[in-house]
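Before a colleague's protein record goes any further, I have to sign it off. Alongside the sequence sits a line of tokens, each denoting a local backbone shape. I want your independent view on whether this chain really folds as the tokens say. Where you disagree with what is written, explain briefly why. This is what I was given:
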Amino acid sequence: MSAPPVRVLIVDDHDIVRRGLRALLDEFDDLEVVAEASNGVQAVQLAESEEPDVILMDLVMPEMDGVEATRQIAEKETKARILVITTYGGDEHVIPAIKSGAHGYMLKDSGSEQVVEAIRQVHRGEPALHPDIARALIQEIRPEKPEKAAPDPLTPRELEVLSLMAGGLTNREIADRLVIAEVTVRSHISRVLDKLHLANRVQATLYALREGVVDLDENP
């Protein structure tokens, strides 16, 4: 039996953008648009009522912007993962969005295949970043307290897990690669995030890129 389609909520204040994204996603059997929102307030409400798997979030919108909507949705600890899709690639937009809990950040000039694959990536729990955004963030994203970023150094196993996670592997794939249980992988990831004072896999990936644990040109 095939897996159920990924339930997608589209959030953008421009009707033509919502129509375009819906038309694109309707071409794929594994993706299903369950609702649309034209501002952040609606996004927060629909995230709770429609229980989407992935939310495509614009940033600059009336009533409530995408960063605040992302923060509120993340605080509710819903299953939804948030993929920002916007025209704004400046630090003043990117960094607040990632810190608010976005799992990915794509620009609206991205190709259709890139957007679709980014949706699938964040649904799998992997970070999805436009290459230009990733490069800009490497030097900008820092742990909340840099002087206490790693009070305890990562163990060799934790470094392995960080490298594989930053390389885009899922927990299941990391477990298979290291021949360990998936629950053990989750435990390692939790300790890595705690030691580095990072909030999520996106920040862990950026940390790994900045510190040279993985190479940006080799990372998906």
About this structure: DSSP finds ten helices and six strands in the chain. Residues 6-138 form a domain with the Rossmann fold fold (CATH 3.40.50.2300). The beta strands are 6-11, 31-37, 54-57, 81-86, 104-107, 128-129. Residues 142-151 have pLDDT under 50 and may be disordered.
